[in-house]
Every structure is written in structure tokens, then in C-alpha cells.
Amino acid sequence: MGDEIAYMLGVVAAGFAVNFGLRALPFALFGGKGRSLPKAVEKLGAVISPVIIACLIVYSYASLEWRTAAPYAAGFVTIALELRKKNPLLAIIAGTLVYMALLRF
Amino acid sequence: MEEQKTIFRRALADSLPVMMGYTTMGLVAGVLLAAKGNLVLAPLWGLLSSACWITGTMSFAFIPEVAARSSAYAIALMTLAVNFRYAFYGFSLLARWQGVKSWRKLYLILLLTDENYALEDTSPLKDPRDHERYCLILSALNHSYWVSGVTVGALLVCLLGFAIDPEAIRRATNGMEFAMVALFLVIFTDQIKGFCGHGR
Prior knowledge:
By secondary structure, chain A is mainly α. Helix content of chain A is 81%, strand content 0%. Chain A is built from four helices and no strands. Chain B is mainly alpha-helical. Chain B is globular. At the A-B interface, helix 1, helix 2, helix 3 and helix 4 of A face helix 1, helix 2, helix 3, helix 4 and helix 5 of B.
């Protein structure tokens, strides 16, 4: 038990250090008090966000059943509902239900 | 400045799709951790790792490593490879978070998951103080969903032992993970609409 606790603390600390370190990197580099951001960094910040979100979509599709039609049909429903009704929660719940239903077909 | 209550409601509403994903994904991760991790203290592992890491991918990926008793160093390297994308999220929040004070900022940074990032970065709140409060509430809510999902999952297996079939739970919740993808799709749709219309 003592061994397991020591091992656990080591693993948790290691994972914490890497996850937090990665997330803190931009702030460590450019987030100093009273320092103004370099123009290039400011520009990067403005354009990077849709790119990241697009990557997240591709990345998360890869962990779905992407060889079947299910995630694409569900994605279509989600986007269509969001455009029509402008209700994110409705679009997300409907899309998820479609996906779950298609998986069980 | 918006009223405290309005901001809380906004954060709560935005967190609901995340709740769908975090609680179910967390539950499955916790169940697998306890069932496959070869651990005595699985619920404690679940509690600590989910509270300190807040990363879905690694919460699944580290289970076989722990079962094989890989070194903490090896797990750190694996985390670096799997989660390298996190290093880019801060860039678009640098300016908006410039006025956030030390501990709060560290908490917001620690909680920069895919979902928190996507919501916080695209939040329309203009006033930095409103945005800060929104981010703090959203982070705390999503943090609590994730930690309770993982911990409850691990506890279930520990308490009920063989009555819990990890495969059955996985099958029952199969597809719930689409909530996260749908969240990104909705955010991306709104971003594109913003670009095509009158800009952000």
C-alpha cells in the first residue's frame, strides 16, 4: 500500500507538471505584468482560435466511428439546427441523440 | 458590467453540454481505471489524477501504463506527446486575461481543457472583469463534473466489484462523447458565421 501511494504521488505530480506546464507556456513567455504583447503574438492570438477549433473537430472525429456515416449525419443535424434555431444546447443534444441512435442501429 | 447572476446563468448554461460529456466520459474512465489499473486505491487515483490533470485523453491512456507500473517519467513523456496542443491555447487568451490576479489566473490556466478553451475564447463578454468571472465559474463547474465522473466511476467498481461490467457501462454510454464534438461544431459554426457576417 505504501508503495502504491508513493507511486501514485509520483505519477500524479508528473502528469500535473506536464499538463500545467503546457497550458502555462504562452503565459510564461508573454504574460509578464505590465509587459505589452509583441504585435506578432497579438495577431497569432486573433487568428489561431478558429484554426484550433477546426483541429479539435478533426481530432475528435478520429476518436468517433468515423468510418461510418453516423458522425457525419449527427454533425449535419447539429450544424443545421444551430444555424436555424440558434440554440446551442438544443443542437448539441439533438446531434448527440442522433449519433447514439445511429450507433445502435 | 453585467450582473453576477446573469454571468452565473450564462456559465451554467454553457457548461451543460460539457456536463453531458465530462460526467459520462469521466465515469467510463473511472470504471476502467479501477477495473484495469491493477490498483488497490483506485478511487484515490481517480480523484487525484482527475482533479490535478483535467485531461480526458490521458485519463484513458495512462491506465495500461499504470497497470504495467511504468515510471512516472515515462508517463510524463507520454502526456507531453498526447497533450502538446495545450501549449497553443493560451495565445488567444493572453490579452483578455492580462488583468486576472495570480491564483485565479493559475486556476484558469490549469483548467484550460479543450472545452473550456473553446467556450472561454469565443465568449462574447466584452468587459474583462465579466469575462474573468465567467471563466472562473465555468472552469469550476466543468472541473466538478469531471472529478465527480471519474471518482464515482472508480468507487462504483471498488464497492460493487464484479457486479459492474466495464463493457456494459461503455456500451450504455457509447456515443455520449459526441456531445463534445457537437460543442466544437456549434462554436465553429458561430465563428464562421461571425467571419462571414459583420466580423467578431
